[in-house]
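Open question from group meeting: does this chain pack into something compact, or does most of it stay loose? Before anyone orders reagents, we agreed to write out a predicted structure and look at it together. Recording both the input and the output here so the notebook holds the full record.
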Amino acid sequence: MLHSLFPKAHLRFLSLPLLGPIADSFDDWLAANGYTRSSREYFVSKLRHTDADLRSRQVKEVADLTHPVLHGCWRTLSKTYPGHAKTVRILERYLAANGLIIRDRPATGTSPASILIEEYLNYLREVRGFASSTVSNHRYTAQCLLQHLEEKGIAPKKIQASHLESYVAKAGKRLSRAGLQQDIGALRGFLRFLAMDGRVPAGLDSQIDTPRLYRLEQLPRALPWETVRTLLRSIDKTSAKGLRDYAMFLLIATYGLRTSEVVAITLDDIRWRQDSLRIHQPKTSSLLELPLINEVSSAIVKHLKRTPPPPRYRRIFLRMRAPIGVLKRTAVGEAFQSLVRKSGLRIPFQGPHCMRHSLAVHLLKSGTPLKTIGDILGHRSAASTSTYLRLATGDLREVALPVPGRWRQAKEGER
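Structure tokens returned:
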């Protein structure tokens, strides 16, 4: 509460003409989301600058605030008070979290490209039933194409195959072959959507060539098992963040979990009495039951004792920085890259998925049957697991046959 934060000056913030009525609850929200006392003091003390700027924009009540208005306030304060502008962003998060901000309405001057993209996204959600992540990828491709056409001064109605070729050539400079193939797939879907009611000529989607990708052309990215063990030992387990990261990466190294599976683990998924761990697999939309070994159990317990999740959260791994919230998949990758830099190990891979491959190779070299490895990794087909056979170079050398020509020459020489 503001009274405990500013015992003598709290009335000054409660009397602000616009933001005074929410100043106390704003401070409570900061405290509940893990902001330190010094951060709370800073953000609350800068509310007067935000209040003055918003009132200059003819905002009379908090209910009249919108995202564009707050964005304009942020832009103004970033020029006059660069250190105070962050308060506007934090205030916007608070208002959105508590339902106190009006959702943006389509402006009368909305560009035709924006309207077209929103229509396409609704089609992907309602008709095609795409996941939100897939919709986001298709949105980016559609925006890039429309921006490319706008730069060329070409209306979608007059688009030709040569214009698509120039777009693909431009996209190929920033994407890998696999990324370009996915981008072209999204591009074809967007063109088919536009062709349904004649907004682009029909058949353009079939005139785009994709780069050739060959099945199993790259080996799985795996590390030596000793490198994985050294990486885990290098984690500083004296800090709260270190205990969290150690538990996360130990789960990946022990069970070969994906990052999406690690961040989704909740308190209900750990069955302490049955010594089992339940994993939700978004990729296959299935549940996986795994034994809970002592080392993993101990790491999770130490993490939860040091950083217990707030009552409204059930997930085990949360953000360590304010605002407290659900940990994203990208955050696990960033934590892995930071760990690699601190460890000093020469690991060429950018994400923790290499630890999943490393476990599969380690089990394979230890003589574990492919079926068991597939069950641990949650594979639905044996073909997914058999790809790791290509990394067992020692076993492959034993089954190699002699070259017929040299074998005959050797036999003739013996005679």
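Observations to bring back to the group:
The domain at 225-395 is CATH 1.10.443.10 (hpI Integrase; Chain A).
The longest strand covers residues 276-281.
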